[in-house]
Write a structure and sequence with these properties.
Distance between the termini: 84 Å
Strand order of the largest sheet: 1-2-3
Helix content: 40-55%
Transmembrane segments: 13-36, 80-99, 111-131, 171-196
Radius of gyration: 48 Å
Number of helices: 10
Structural class: mainly alpha
Keywords: Membrane, Transmembrane, Transmembrane helix
Order of helices and strands: HHHHHHHHEEEHH
C-alpha cells in the first residue's frame, strides 16, 4: 500500500503563497510579452556600448567579415526573451490550473513539490540568463549583470531607452520574486511529504475500514443473489407461475378460484354481481345479500359476523344477464339533515 500525503502541515501558509503568486505571474506574462520579438534588447545593448559598459551589436558584423565566429552573449540573445515568454505563458497556465485543483483537494503535496520545484528551477535559470555577463569585448568587459540592473536608468545614453530600462529592471525583479515564492512552496510541499508513523497508522485504519465496508456490501449482494436463485423465497411458500397471481380466499368464496378457468375468477365483478361456478364448470351471475344496518352501531361493517357469512347460502339467488340489464337504477332518497 503506497501512502500519498494529502494534507499540508502549514496549509494557511500555502494559501498565502498562492495568493502572493497571482500578482507576480501576471506581470511576468505582460513584461515578457512586451519584450518578445526583440522590442528593446538590442537597443539596451547598443545603449550600454555607447556608455562603454559592454560590447556593441556591430561586433557580429566585424566577426563575420573577418571570418571569425561570434557567439552572442545570452543576456543579449533572442534565446533570452523567447525563453522568458514561454515561461510566462507556462506559469500562468499552471496557476490557472492549480487553483481549481487545489480547491478540489487533488493538488497533493508530492505533486506540489514536483510542479513548484520545476518552476523554481526554470525561473532561477531565467534570472541567471537576465543577469548574465558579457565578456566578448576585451576593451569593455562586463563581468556581472548588465548595466540596466546594476545602474539607475537615468544613466542611459538615449533618453528614449529609459522606459525600456525600467521594463527590463522590473522583469528581473519579478523573476527573482517568483523564484523565491516557488522555492518556498517547494519547501513546504516537501515538509508535508514526510509524515509520521501516527499519520500512516491512521491512514491504514481508514483504508481497512473502507475495505471492510466493501466486503460487507459484497457479501450482502451475494446473499441476495442466492435468495433470488433459490426455488422459493421463503420456507412454506408454494411455487408460483410467473405472470399469474393466485386469488386470496374470502368469506364469500371460501373455495378459491376455479382451476379450469384461471383468467376468470369468482372475484371478477360482472353486472352488479359475481360469477359463481355452476354445473359443468359454467359460470352464472349471482348477487350478494346486502348487509342490513345495525341499530346499535352507525358503522355498517362493525358487526362482521352478521354481515359476512361464510356460508354460500347467501348467494343462492341467481338472476340472468338480461334481467340485470333491464333493471333500472334508482338512487336512494336523501337523508334529512339533523339540526
Amino acid at each position: 500500500m503506497v501512502f500519498i500525503p494529502r494534507k499540508y502541515r502549514h496549509h494557511r501558509v500555502v494559501l498565502y503563497l498562492m495568493a502572493a503568486e497571482c500578482p507576480i505571474v501576471l506581470p511576468v506574462l505582460i513584461l515578457t510579452g512586451i519584450a518578445a520579438h526583440n522590442t528593446y534588447t538590442t537597443k539596451l545593448w547598443q545603449d550600454g556600448a555607447n556608455n562603454g559598459f559592454n560590447s556593441a551589436p556591430n561586433q557580429v558584423v566585424y566577426a563575420l567579415t573577418n571570418g571569425r565566429t561570434y557567439k552572442v552573449p545570452i543576456v543579449w540573445s533572442s534565446l533570452l526573451y523567447n525563453y522568458d515568454l514561454v515561461l510566462g505563458v507556462l506559469s500562468t497556465f499552471i496557476l490557472l490550473t492549480k487553483i481549481p485543483v487545489h480547491i478540489l483537494h487533488f493538488f497533493h503535496p508530492p505533486f506540489s513539490a514536483i510542479v513548484h520545484g520545476a518552476l523554481c528551477v526554470l525561473y532561477g535559470c531565467a534570472a541567471g540568463f537576465q543577469a548574465g555577463s558579457d565578456t566578448t569585448d576585451s576593451r569593455h568587459p562586463q563581468n556581472g549583470p548588465p548595466w540596466y540592473i546594476t545602474k539607475p536608468c537615468s544613466v542611459a545614453y538615449s533618453p528614449g531607452n529609459i522606459g525600456y530600462c525600467q521594463q527590463a529592471k522590473s522583469l528581473f525583479a519579478v523573476t527573482v520574486i517568483a523564484t523565491t515564492i516557488y522555492f518556498a512552496q517547494t519547501v513546504l510541499a516537501l515538509i508535508s511529504c514526510f509524515v509520521s508513523k501516527e499519520e500512516k497508522e491512521a491512514y491504514r485504519q481508514r483504508q481497512q475500514e473502507k475495505q471492510d465496508e466493501r466486503d460487507a456490501e459484497d457479501r450482502a449482494l451475494r446473499e441476495y443473489e442466492e435468495i433470488l436463485k433459490s426455488p422459493g423465497f421463503g420456507p412454506g411458500m408454494p411455487p408460483v407461475t410467473p405472470g399469474f397471481v393466485a386469488p386470496m380466499p374470502s368469506a364469500y368464496f371460501p373455495g378459491g378460484n376455479n382451476s379450469n378457468n384461471p383468467l376468470q375468477s369468482p372475484y371478477t365483478p360482472r353486472f352488479g354481481g359475481y360469477y359463481a361456478p355452476g354445473k359443468d364448470n359454467n359460470y352464472s351471475p349471482m348477487t350478494m345479500t346486502p348487509a342490513t344496518n345495525s341499530a346499535t352501531s352507525d358503522l355498517p361493517l362493525r358487526n362482521a359476523a352478521s354481515v359476512f357469512d361464510a356460508k354460500p347460502a347467501s348467494f343462492s339467488t341467481h338472476i340472468s344477464v338480461a334481467e340485470v340489464e333491464q333493471q333500472p337504477y334508482f338512487p336512494p332518497p336523501p337523508k334529512k339533515a339533523t339540526k
